[in-house]
Design a protein that fits this description.
The protein is an all-alpha fold. About 75% of the residues lie in helices and about 0% in strands.
Length: about 80
């Protein structure tokens, strides 16, 4: 009987964990767009778009990768001081 109760409890916990992950209540890593906006928060919208265009053209890549490259470049620049 004790084993049955323990098995039911374990199954309940497992189903709860699965439900939490499926519902999206678990903190997910921020999207590249959100991180880009955070890193360049004091930059004007026009300048942010110019940065994206610059990195897109420089590396022949899409918008998402261009934002990631801009974030990485800024982090590298900040570490160089």
């Amino acid at each position: 009987m004790t084993i049955l109760i323990a098995a039911l409890a374990a199954a309940s916990v497992a189903s709860f964990i699965v439900a939490v992950f499926k519902s999206g209540r678990v903190n997910k890593a921020p999207s590249t767009n959100k991180r880009f906006r955070t890193v360049f928060a004091i930059t004007s919208e026009d300048r942010r778009e110019s940065l994206i265009a610059h990195y897109s053209q420089k590396y022949s890549c899409g918008r998402e990768e261009a934002m990631q490259r801009a974030i990485d470049h800024k982090a590298q620049d900040e570490r160089s001081w």
